[in-house]
Structure of Thioredoxin peroxidase:
Amino acid sequence: MSVLVGKKAPSFSTKAVVNGHEIVENFSLEQYVGKKYVVFFFYPKDFTFVCPTEIIAFQEKIAEFESRNVAVVGVSTDSEFSHWKWLQTDKKEGGIKGVKFPLVADGSMTISDSYDVLAGEYDFNEEGMLEFKGEPAAYRGLFLIDKEGVVRHQVVNDMPLGRSVDETLRMVDALQFFEENGEVCPANWHKGSTGLKATQEGISEYLGKN
């Protein structure tokens, strides 16, 4: 598993569905550089079980992300047409109608591969033929990207394990607190808590208060 923290987020340009219904041709995270933070998350497949709970949970908290100047973007190895159909399907029928943030189509699996969350890989068989081994879907990877396009946080879950949207918000708050105050965030830090000066005196002071 590659660690992308501290590195530029891998770039791409591909099709996506935005605003819940509009298919665009050349969607890229480059549009956010210098303007917004990005929560870029992978999920395995449209029309499955855990995935809609995560996507709808992000949509329910979208105002909180927007208030922090964060763009939320989802991606799977499904086509843009699968995304579009899922977005038009009512929740009671297993759909995600009402979701407005972009869903990126990674049918070539190159984005999942470049972020190193693809559950399978291409390899040569005994006959020397190239074939795909494993599952052509992404693990539940999530990447918090700052306004300079650098990955500052990543987490990857196996497919059965849904993520915490509240924890994602906490990490956004921690990054922005550090950028604004120059203080680091200790264990279990939440917005409104005190930070920690990255010195021996700072840790002694913090531990003395707690």
